[in-house]
Amino acid sequence: LAPAEGQTPKALDAEQEPSPSTPSSPRCGARRLAAGLAPAEITTLQSGGPGVYVVTQKVSLTTGSAKASPRIEWLSAGTHVQVLEVQCRLEDNRVRGRIEEPAGWISLASLEDISNRWAVMDLEKSNRWIVGGVERLKELTRNLEAAEQVTKEMQEAATAKLSELYQREAEVAEELVQSQSESHDLRDRCVQHESARRDAKLALKAVCLQVDSPGVYCLSSSVDVTEGPARGSPKCERLATDTVVHVVEVVHRLQERRVRGRIESPAGWISLLDIDEGSRWADKQLDASNEWIAQIPSAGSIAAGGLEGCQRHAASRKEQQKPSVPSSTEGAAPIELNPGASAASASDFGLSYAGDQP
Question: pTM of the predicted model, to two decimals?
Answer without folding.
Answer: 0.32
